[in-house]
Every structure is written in C-alpha cells, then in structure tokens.
Sequence to fold (862 residues):
Amino acid sequence: MEAEINVRTVERDAQKYWTDNRSFEVTEDPNKPKYYCLSMLPYPSGKLHMGHVRNYTISDVISRYRRMCGHNVLHPMGWDAFGMPAENAAIERGRQPAEWTYANIDYMKQQMQALGFGFDWSREVTTCKPDYYRWEQWFFTELLKRGDAYRKNGEVNWCETDQTVLANEQVEDGCCWRCGNPVERRDIAQWYLRITDYAQELLDGLDTIDWPDMVKTMQRNWIGRSEGVEFDWSLPAQDTTIRVYTTRPDTIMGVTFMAVAAEHPVAQAVAAENAEVAAFVAECKSTGTSEAVIEKLEKKGMALGVSVTHPVTGEPVPVWVGNYVLMSYGGGAVMGVPGHDQRDYEFARKYGIEIVQVVDSSDEHVGIEEEAFIAKGGTKLINSAQFDGLEFEAALEATGDYLVANANGERKVNYRMRDWLVSRQRYWGTPIPVIYDEAGEAHPVPAEDLPVVLPEDVRFEGVTSPLQRDQDFLKATLPDGSAGRRETDTFDTFFQSSWYTARYCCPGADSMLDDRANYWLSIDQYIGGIEHAVMHLLYFRYFHKLMRDMGLVDTDEPALRYLPQGMVVSETFYRESDTGKKTYFAPNEVELERNDKGAVTGATLLADNAAVTVGKIQKMSKSKNNGVDPQEMIDRYGADTVRLFTMFASPPDQSLEWKEAGVEGMHRFIKRLWRAVHAHVDAGLDGMAGVDAGALTDAEQALHAKTHATIKKVSDDIGRRYTFNTAIAAVMELINDVSKFDSGSANGRAVVHEALCAAVTLLSPITPHTSHSLWAALGGDGAAVDLPWPEADESAMVSDSVTLAVQVNGKVRAQIVVPADADNDAVEATALADEGVQRHTDGKTVRKVIVVKGRLVNIVAN
Fold:
C-alpha cells in the first residue's frame, strides 16, 4: 500500500501524460458538440496571484467536466502583454519592457502548468508579438476606410513634466500620480472608434445573453440611453447661440442660469478679454476629464457677464463658467434648474443664484426650501405660464413641442457613452498604422506593409516615448512613394483584449480570422472579474459586432454566458505609528492566536514576538501585504490541494476568504481519499466485475444508493449551478460513508469499489493529478482525463428503507432506518423506541418527534 501521497510524483506523472498525449489540444470536429470555455487572459506582471488561481481553476473545472461529457472543448490561454506597467518597470529597473514582459510570461506559464490547468497551449496568444498585432493593425485600417475610425482633437489629462497623457485614474487631487506636479486638461489630436453608432445594439444585445443582471445593469448605465430635446439659446452679446440637451424640457421655466465648460467658445471669448475669467478657466483645466473625477470636486463657478435669452419668456439668463461642466458631455453647456436638480441647487445656494420652483407633486405641495424636488412622475407644473397644471407626461410633450417649434429644437435620443478613445501617447503598445504627409494628412499603412513593428531594443530616458525620437521608426514612405512621418501613438490595451478570444480560434491563420472562428464562436462560458464589466466587456462586445459587419464572424455576441468570479480576501496585520501611518505585515510574518473555536483572537510578529493589530479582511493586495504566494502553497501542499480549497471555500461568484487552516483541511481530505483507495486496492481487485443489485444487503444498498445520489448531485452542481463547494461536500460525504461501511462480501467490496471509482471520477476536474493516479490504482481503463462523466442510475436510488437523521436541539445525534413507505406515525414511534435516539437525548425527556417530508426527524427534548 502506498500509505501516503507523494504530491510531487503524482503531479509529475499526470502532467507528463497530458503533455505526451496532447490531451487538451483540439481541432474542429462537426461530429461533437463544441464548448468554448475561457478565462480572461492575464497581464504578465511576474507572478500569479490567488485571484488568477481562482479564475483559472474555475474555467479548468468547467472545461474538464464538459470534456468528460463528450464536448469538443476549447480552453486556451494567452497574455495581455502590452501596457504601462511594463514601461514603469523598465524605468525603475533599467530594463527593456520586452525583456521584462517575456521573462514574466515564461515564469507565469510555468506556474500555470504546475497547477495542472488544461489549456490548449498550441493556441497561445501574446498580444505584444507582431504575428498577433499585425491583424489588429489591418483591422484598424479597414475601419478607417469604413469611417468607423477617425481622428479629432480630444480633451485629455496632460502632465507637462512627464510630457505624457494620463488616464483619469492616474490623476490624484489634480496632480500626476508619478511626479506629483499639476496636470491640465489639454486638447490634442486623438484616434477614436465610433462605438456610439452601436449604442442601441449594445443595449438590445444584453437581452439575448445569459449574463448576471448586475453586469447588464452596469453596462446599461454606462451606455446611458436618454430621450430629450436639443435646442438653442440665443446669446446676443456674441451674436451666437448656445445649444443644450435636456431630458427635462418640463423644467424650462425654472432655468435661472446657464453653465458652460472652461473650453466652451463662449468662455474662451470672455477669457480673452477678462484676466479674472482667464485665471478661473486655467484653474478649471487643472482637473481630470472624467465624470467620476468631476463628481468629487468642489463645484466652483464664475459669472461671465453675458446672458442668453430665455426661449419662452425672452428674459436674460446669466451665463456662468463651471468647473463641473465638461466639453465632452452635452456639448459643454447645461441649463441650470436649481429647483429640480440637486447639483444645480447646491451651486445656486453657493453663489446666490435665484431658485424657482416650477414642478410640484400632483397630490400635495412639496417645497424646495431644503433640497431640490427631482421627482419624474406624479407631478404637475406650477409657475410655468401657459404650461401651468400639466401633468408630467403631458408637460414633457408640450414643452418639448414648444422648443422644437420656437428654439430650433430637435427631439433626440442621446447616450451617455462617448466614442472610444483608442490612442495613447505611450511606447509599449501596438503602433497605430498611419503615416502623415507633409500637410499632416493621415494615410493608412497598406496591408502589404503590415505589421508596423514596434522596435523592442529601446532604452527609456525619462518617461517620454522612445518612438518620438527614433528616426528609423519615424521615417516612412507613403503609398505614392513620397516621404512621410509615422504615427507615434499606440493603441489602448483594450484594443488588443477586445478580439483575442476570436484569434484563439484560428492559430496560425494568414488572415485576421478564418472559418474556424465560426465553428467555435460564440464563447459558451466566459469568466473574469466584475471590475471589467463596463470597459473590457463593453469593448469586447462592440469589437465582435464590428467583426460581424466586416464578414469575419457570423454571431452577434462574443460570449453567451459570463461568470464574474468573486475576490480572494484575507486577514490583514499591521502596526500604526504615532503619525497614523500603518505598516502591514505578510501572513507568513506573524503567528496567530486562536480561541477554542479556531477564531483568530490576536497575532504577534515573528521577528520580535510583539503584538500586531489584526485588521479587516480585505482583498489580497500589495498595499495591504496580505497576499499569499500560490507557488508557496503549491510547494507546501500540492497543486490539487490549492485547487480543491479554491473551489470548496465559497461559490465562485462570491468572495473567497483565504484560510490556511482550510487549506490544511483539504490536504487532509486528499490524503484520506488516497489511503481509502489504496487500502481497498491492497485487499485485492479480483472479482471487481460490478455490483449485483439484486443481492444487496440493506447496508450495501444504502452505499450503492448513496453513490448514485452523489453522482446526480455533483452533476447538477458542476454542470448547471457551478456550486463547486457543494459538489465537493457531497463527495466528502460519500467517502465518509465508505469509511463507515463494513462488509467483506464480494458484493460489499464491489459496492465500495463503485463508490471509490465514482469519487475519483467526480473529483477529476477539480483534483486531476490525484484522480489520474488513483484511477490507475483502481485498475481503471485508460486515463482519468479521458473518462466519460458518470451517469446516475435512478433505479439504484430506489430503496425499501430510508435512513433519517435525528436532530437533537439542532444537532445530528443519531440515525435510524425506517421503511421507505412508512407514515409519520410509524416513523415517530420508531424514533421514540430507537436506542440511539434515547441515548443521544442526554437523559432529557423526549416531548415530541417532528417528521418533515419523511426525511427529517427532529427530537424536541426538555
């Protein structure tokens, strides 16, 4: 008997078999149902973290299960390899981004292979390699020809010190996150894709896919469909008009000011002649460009000294410049209705602007002394001249009609989402395939000259992109043979990650995609973090629709089902200085103190044996130093233990709290399963021809039924509900029953053999290395990875008797066996007479026995 498992040997043997037999490499097979299962590809940061491990274990379990069910399963992996972190690493370490990136890929790939993930590595995609980005360059040139891509001046965050554009999240309190100097909003030429042309289709498509409601709601809110009126306000002082859009034309009589962005032509014209306004406009430009950033700002404004003419009353309405108005939203101008918009209300209170109520409740008066009245139904107009008394819907219609007829108005559907800015002033990214002539006109690079290869042998001097001074890269020839200058901007990394899923389908294709894409797409199950709900997942859907419209794919949506996995969280440990600064310590730097129930009550630092504070349970992160190195866990417990714990600790869509005590528990279970199988094998496998169902004792029948009930439950838990934790628990229960079973008969040993084979097979997607070894030990045909998924025998679960759990004060204290067709009175009498029940009432008098659905006996004792 192999008394103890040697995880190193078990892992090596299984992985060698999979590699030698190319177990996970697939080709298109029209005779099998296909199943495309995919986890989001990682950024090669250097090491896997536990979030990665959880994500890829989920997809691996689903893929292995589907493979066992007879599907032709595609389960690929690749690398989202471009991006700013590689540049930062190059600057900090004095290394080339390419060198740093490829080294990280090699190490992370080894970690994935050590965990036994069944990826088809023959389809590996690395987005920073020319054989991949060549095709997105080609795709972009086609989009240019179609008019789906265009160039215009756009508002960005500009750091003068670093000479670079910053993403909104890189602006901290108006300053550059890297150098700490102030940023400014600046207009520079950028490349865009017309995603707004697909806004309605992106909304409608959400109704056709099985994605969580939360994700769909986030996308709907991001797209932000609204219906309203766009119309003009006359500005006599500048002999022009200001055009605005509103979803609430019914509040037109409550407008008491107009607010414009600092970049609006009206504000710019006033600033050119007024130093005070010019200074305020410059101050406004020192903020970020996103709505999220603007919302956090203290709202500031300045009167411009000019007025627009109210389109109904003809009265002048003062124009202000406000730091909360962006040129990129609503044309850079909003009408201020402080009585019925809370932001406008606070702004008007701050600057002493008149507040007028023009909407009231239809039932009883609601004042605006303390806050704006913002209801959108059950209302009527007041103080609104010819519109007085109109109810909400009628008011919208009448005021909208008036503005259309009298203020050059137009009823419009607007979307909050803006066109996708795809260019970045960074080095480590896909070169945008455009050449400029002497006049600055952009020309797409011809297909035969693609790819435009990013030079990898570069050195950073500061943070400016090396492409801007690389003369070999800059020099280019236009299609007509004249000299040109190459574009130095690179694509946003979301560009690469928006179509990699389709390229997996066509490894080695000499075009962007080929017919193989239509065999595999759409993805049957996509898995990734909820944080990608409105960026990657939206662009990913948009890109797929573009590819469809260019005839590259047949389907409307890239992924039919999406699972956002929960975060991995763990305890934090820290000490706080006199100044309030917290220094966090890693879990392996502290020793925990626990109470009798295993709960952590305190901790000491191993380095000095002094106490540290046990902080909140938080998402694993570098800043909190509470991460756990997957490699350390693999080395200590083995890959299958890590996989088993990540699937058992919680359902996949919920947070997983990392507890090493739980990991140890999973390791004990694997060792227990190992010992059970080898003890059975050591007793001899002769005569294991199968279970004779017609000659079973009650105990043998009970275990036989338990085996098939477990198969049924695990099949449902893994195949339909993805409740891997309950599936594992069911197998554990089966092994518990095996350990309690005592029968030396041939049929008894056959029942045990059946149960152990089922347990090993059911766990194969989760603990594939262990199952590989144990299946061979059990004398099974072939390899565990190639087994068909077991089917439950419904007839095996039909029994003449039923085992009932007896609960005393909420705890299971005994079991009794009763006839399956016994009525409640009979069960109650049996329970009262059963010695096991009497023995477990701790000498208390049994008052009542409650039988629920013939399955649960609850003993109520005094």
Q: What stands out?
A: The longest strand covers residues 149-159.
